Task: inverse folding
């Protein structure tokens, strides 16, 4: 028993040092008023138009990003399930490969492609598109989808390959057509994968500031940029902490909703 | 200040765990010979760092920042993080007022007479009484860099940045004060105004400009202008010579409404671990030949009078690089530190612009 406790010590220190204390600090700063007293000012600041706007845009963009990722990744995982293990693991490898490179570098690469004189920019100009690409919502969305797609592919692929062939065969034996197999058998069985994929895409795209900073031409502020600016340039830590606390609530809410559906799925299995 | 103490306490609690685990006291003998320098990005001839190390035997750890506002919180959190920092004058003032700087020991700076005393006087009047803290490194103005092939109007006023003709090819500065300065000067206000009505007006003006702006950038203005991606860009005068070298179509104008005149300078942090080496660094940068070589590289005007004899006569007489003293004294202002509340006001308005 003692030994087990000792083994858990590093993790305990990790959790307290890098999760619990920082969280408490956010609370501390977030609720701290001008003269050190308690205030809700920084939390309620989210209601001001210059904060609420970016929050809504962030929510919208990250929902779109998540849906797009899901629409790309789900059929891919279905196809890979049917392909042999060898071939599918190669395709997965290709999808994961960009992640070996630094996130910032990849986004910079996109910046170079989309910026004036970049390959994509020149191509679109030839097609008759006028105006800038960098500094549009589309560019940010592209950067998000590109960067977070692997986080959707991996859990879906894992969930998909775990399904026993016999389960599907049984469904077919019992008279289910392909459509029914896909939607009534495979989909519920991969639901945990969908949930973790959605979480892993939605949360980072809701909080991102790097993608919008680079591909938004600093014209578009997402809520992540607002918070980052409060800490870095405005050095208003109280407001930054208050706003990130609100953002955490949004993330917790979305996770609660997802978990709710997740457990529903499990009950159906039983 | 109180929140710093709390922050420090948290930091110590967290760090002590890490440090105890990591090294367990692996000596700090090297400390004496290390100098930590914190400067703007791409703001020095890096060969000079090596020469300084060779001459003095001091090892230099060199880090960069891209705005004063990015640098400040780091020094505020721990002023021993770096020994020498190179902020702009208004930030020096803020650092002075928040007790983050160590007074200079001018007797350790043997090359101090190289400095142009006119500038020292201006600095003493506006920012740093009796020049206790700051040794100017570069100075200049903020103006409009434009591409003569893309702009056929005369560029002599900030108004052109609101001209619909150039929609989508205007680059604005992404730093709060520089952006507001443009609006303030256009409207004829002081660039240090804290009047809520005037600031509100400036915000509305910048908001009206937003659809015309291609991007809000800092260091990228130069490269984008050189590449011909934009017609007009707000830029620091020091970038002009380099840009013109790379793209002869570029020209620089100081708008007639006036602009910001700025100084960047070396300061030593309050809790510097190696103030001695810091003085040696500043003294080295003050040497006439070093300052001249550095000017050739970074092309930001130097306040080093003695260095001028090493500088090309054509460049010395270019009003865009070394503007007339009269323009500077009559139309231009220095940024002053406006205090915490006014600063917050600027940021709040800036968020509304975007």
Result:
């Amino acid at each position: 028993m003692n030994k087990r406790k000792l083994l858990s010590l590093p993790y305990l220190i990790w959790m307290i040092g890098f999760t619990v204390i920082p969280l408490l600090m956010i609370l501390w700063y977030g609720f701290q008023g001008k003269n050190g007293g308690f205030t809700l000012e920084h939390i309620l600041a989210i209601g001001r138009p210059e904060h609420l706007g970016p929050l809504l845009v962030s929510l919208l963009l990250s929902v779109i990003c998540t849906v797009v990722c899901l629409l790309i990744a789900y059929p891919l995982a279905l196809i890979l399930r049917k392909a042999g293990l060898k071939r599918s693991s190669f395709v997965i490898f290709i999808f994961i490969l960009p992640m070996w490179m630094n996130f910032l570098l990849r986004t910079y690469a996109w910046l170079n492609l989309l910026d004036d004189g970049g390959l994509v920019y020149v191509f679109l100009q030839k097609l008759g598109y006028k105006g800038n690409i960098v500094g549009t919502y589309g560019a940010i969305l592209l950067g998000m989808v590109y960067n977070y797609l692997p986080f959707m592919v991996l859990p879906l692929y894992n969930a998909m390959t775990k399904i026993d062939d016999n389960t599907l065969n049984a469904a077919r034996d019992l008279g289910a057509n392909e459509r029914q197999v896909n939607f009534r058998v495979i989909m519920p069985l991969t639901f945990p994968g969908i949930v973790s994929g959605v979480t892993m895409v939605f949360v980072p795209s809701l909080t991102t500031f790097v993608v919008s900073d680079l591909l938004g031409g600093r014209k578009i502020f997402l809520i992540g940029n607002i918070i980052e600016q409060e800490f870095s340039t405005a050095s208003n830590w109280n407001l930054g902490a208050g706003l990130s606390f609100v953002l955490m609530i949004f993330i917790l809410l979305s996770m609660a909703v997802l978990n709710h559906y997740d457990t529903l799925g499990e009950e159906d299995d039983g | 200040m109180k929140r710093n103490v709390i922050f420090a306490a948290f930091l110590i609690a967290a760090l002590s765990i890490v440090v105890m685990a990591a090294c367990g006291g692996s000596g700090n003998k090297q400390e004496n010979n290390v100098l930590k320098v914190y400067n703007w990005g791409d703001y020095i001839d890096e060969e000079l760092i090596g020469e300084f190390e060779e001459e003095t035997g001091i090892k230099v750890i060199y880090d960069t920042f891209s705005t004063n506002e990015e640098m400040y919180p780091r020094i505020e959190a721990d002023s021993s993080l770096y020994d020498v920092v190179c902020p702009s004058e208004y930030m020096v003032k803020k650092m002075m007022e928040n007790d983050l700087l160590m007074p200079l020991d001018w007797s350790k700076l043997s090359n101090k007479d190289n400095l142009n005393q006119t500038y020292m006087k201006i600095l003493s009047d506006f920012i740093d009484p009796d020049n206790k803290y700051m040794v100017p490194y570069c100075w200049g103005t903020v103006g409009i860099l434009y591409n003569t092939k893309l702009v056929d109007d005369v560029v002599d006023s900030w108004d052109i940045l609101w001209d619909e003709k150039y929609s989508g090819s205007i680059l604005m500065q992404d730093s709060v004060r520089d952006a507001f300065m443009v609006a303030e000067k256009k409207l004829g206000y002081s660039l240090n105004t804290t009047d809520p009505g005037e600031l509100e007006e400036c915000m509305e003006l910048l908001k009206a400009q937003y659809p015309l702006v291609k991007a809000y950038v800092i260091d990228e203005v130069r490269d984008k202008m050189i590449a011909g991606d934009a017609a007009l860009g707000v830029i620091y005068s020091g970038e002009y010579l380099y840009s013109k070298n790379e793209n002869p179509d570029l020209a620089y104008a100081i708008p007639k409404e006036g602009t910001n005149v700025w100084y960047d300078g070396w300061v030593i942090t309050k809790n510097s671990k190696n103030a001695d080496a810091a003085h040696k660094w500043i003294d080295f940068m003050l040497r006439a030949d070093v300052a001249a070589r550095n000017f050739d590289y970074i092309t930001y005007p130097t306040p080093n009078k003695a260095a001028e004899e090493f500088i090309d006569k054509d460049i010395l007489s270019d009003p865009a690089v070394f503007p007339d003293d009269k323009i500077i004294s009559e139309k231009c202002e220095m940024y002053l530190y406006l205090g915490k509340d006014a600063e917050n006001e600027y940021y709040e308005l800036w968020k509304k612009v975007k």
In short: The CA atoms of residues 173 and 217 of chain B lie 5 Å apart. The longest strand of chain B covers residues 135-147.
